[in-house]
Amino acid sequence: MISINCPICGKLFEKQGFYEVCQSCFSNNQSEFEKVRDYLYNYSNKNIQEVANATGVSISKINEFIRQGRLTRS
What we know:
Elements: E1 2-5, E2 12-15, H1 23-42, H2 48-55, H3 59-67
Antiparallel strand pairs: 1-2
Helix pairs in contact: 1-2
């Protein structure tokens, strides 16, 4: 296995499969995604600023989820 530094936190970890970040950052990212997804499920008419304020997830992170195709704009 190859050890690399996580591009988010800088922690050294063993790269496994397609994961490009450490498990901690991956879990945190997934948790933020779920917060946004669940909020939008209940409040689909909110704009990005309102979603960020309500969930505590940054606008740039929400935009990243949109760019990745994990969220869609309606």
